[in-house]
Amino acid sequence: MDPEQQLREACQACVRCPLAAGRHGAVVSRGPSGARLMLIGEAPGAEEDASGRPFVGRSGRLLDQLLAGAGISSEREAYICNAIKCRPPGNRKPAAAELAACRPWLDRQLEQVNPALVVLAGATAVEALLGVRGGLSRMRGQWQSWQGRWLMPVFHPSYLLRFSSMEPGSPRWHTAADFLEVRRRLDRLDGPTSGQEQPLPPRL
Q1: Fewer CB within 10 Å: C terminus or N terminus of the chain?
Q2: Confidence grade of residue 195 (pLDDT, cut at 50, 70, 90)
Q3: pTM score of the predicted model
């Protein structure tokens, strides 16, 4: 059995927190397990809980559009998961204890996929990985160095559903620009000096 399947089966058997009692099934990931890019969201919603795949509802469709707009394939180039693997009741924000209970699964995904770049979609993903609360507005769009990887916090697609404008300065415009920066960084990994870490360019 490959490591990803082992992970799925382990998550399905997990009872580390009370969310296990109300789930249809654990929602682990979609996308290739060897991707250089990992995207971490918050938690499964109703459609994700039913299908077993993260980001397949309205937020997921918008995410796929944003990735495609930056030239990133959500099926071939990105490993997509959430900070927690079970749906909170009523799609509420995960509690700190739930994030802590699920953190070993997220750590295992990071270890197995070993991505060079990680996109943190939303404040909960930032809190889950970095322990920073309320820092999304300050950190959004800025590369963060963390344990040998580069992290890019961005707005969560569910937040962007509140806005339709793509005018410069709008939340969707900023997020589209952030994903273009992720695409540029992926391209740099393919460059002639991809085996050497390079300083990041300043954000304008």
Answers
A1: C
A2: very low
A3: 0.91
